Amino acid sequence: MTPGPIGDGYDPNSTFILVGFPGLEFAHVWISFPLCLMYIIALLGNCTIMYIIKVEPSLHEPMYLFLAMLAAIDILISSSTMPKILILLWFDVMEISFNGCLIQMFLIHSLSAMESTVLLAMAFDRYVAICNPLRHSSILTNKRIALIGLLSVIRGSLFFSPIPFLIKRLPFCHSTMLSHSFCVHQDVMKLACADTTPNIVYGLSAILFVMGVDSLLISFSYVMILKTVCGLSRKESLKAFNTCISHISAVLIFYVPLIGLSVVHRFGERLSSTTYIVMGDIYLFVPPVLNPIVYGIKTGKIRNKILGLFKISCWEEDVKVGSLHFSSVNMISRENERSSFIKNPI
Questions:
Q1: What is the pLDDT of residues 301-316, one digit of tens each?
Q2: What is the percentage of the chain residues whose pLDDT exceeds 70?
Q3: Residues 207, 209, 215, CA angle at the centre, nearest 5°?
Q4: Which letter does DSSP use for residue 59 in this model?
Q5: What does the pLDDT look like over 195-253, one tens digit per residue?
Q6: N or C: less crowded end of the chain, CB within 10 Å?
Q7: Over the stretch 49-67, which tens digit does the pLDDT of each residue have?
């Protein structure tokens, strides 16, 4: 079933066709395994980060609370797309309903905006911690951190809630095949057979006012941090800058694929479909996988807590094995005593 003809707007019963990996349909099942593994790693990694921050009182600090928000957003982004992609690859179900596509589109864009806002909040936290450490606890109180989290949700939702309505007004009368295995605004918009200028203007404005402004403010915060760090001793400057490495990595992991995907959609008419698919998959699936790994390795408190959990589990396993071994030895000893008593009664 195809979307409605020109002049009729959209048909709520229409569908779009998602794309797996053109030319590699025979290998879809095999391709699904690394993607499924990435999804599992993203879920386990981010859930572990959230659990450790929740149960460890020493991690109830602004940087770690923002990290927990980042982990929650990464889980939601992965879960809004990966199950549908796996169904496509496993069962060759390529269709997605019009309304389902709009919902997925809104989730992808709004959650990305929320992640950008949290990354900005983390940059502000590093700025205050390094440039004004005496006021850090008084500026970033738990109440203000919760308010920042709420504002990130409201901001992402408000800026990108008009996108589905802008798509709804468009007629689709030709191809309904997308260039990704998920729905994004730029991709769906290209299939319309009407003027998409309002979509282009608003979509570009939303990205500039959210991701663009956030990236500029993050850059400005690090300019101020560098200015402060340059006035410290070598040892103190290295220690201060080391606390920023994880956040800088998270910023690059988020913004580089985002910029790459935007450039591909704006100026990549002559690129192959595989380029679109790979760039889209990197943008959506790499940050949720790499963020918990980066923070788990580079953040000492989280790394030590994770290692502590593994040590406890290994110790408990050793205790169980030791108890079983002791019980079996004790039973054998009793059996030997009983046999000896029967053979040599008093």
A1: 888 888 887 775 555 5
A2: 86
A3: 80
A4: G
A5: 999 999 999 999 999 999 999 999 999 999 999 988 888 888 888 888 899 999 999 99
A6: C
A7: 999 999 999 899 999 999 9
Predicted confidence at residue 148, as pLDDT, reads 97
- Where do we find the tokens 């502590």? 308
Cβ proximity of 104 and 96 under 8 Å = yes
Sign of CA dihedral 36, 40, 41, 46: positive
Q: Check pLDDT > 70 for residue 343.
A: no
Q: Contact 221/126 with Cβ under 8 angstroms?
A: yes
Quick one: which of 81, 78, 89 has its CA closest to 289? 78
177 phi/psi in degrees, rounded to 5: -90, 120
Give long-range contacts, CB 8 A cutoff, 24+ apart: 172-176.
172/2, 172/3, 172/4, 172/10, 172/14, 173/2, 173/3, 173/4, 173/5, 173/6, 176/2, 176/3, 176/14, 176/15, 176/16, 176/17
**Ramachandran angles phi, psi of 253, nearest 5°:** -60, -30
* Rounded (10°) angle between helices 213-229 and 245-267: 150
Query: What is residue 11's predicted lDDT score, i.e. its pLDDT?
Result: 64
The four Cα atoms 16, 197, 171, 89 give a dihedral, to 10 degrees, of 0
Q: What stretches of the chain adopt beta strand conformation (E)? A: 15-17, 95-97
Is the pLDDT confidence value at 341 over 50?
A: no
Coil/strand/helix, residue 23: coil
Share in percent of the chain as helix, strand, coil (round to 5): 80, 0, 20
Question: Which residues lie closer than 8 Å to 283 by C-beta, 6 or more apart?
Answer: 257, 258, 260, 261
By CB atoms closer than 10 A (0-12, 13-18, 19+), residue 313 is: exposed
pLDDT at 120 over 70: yes
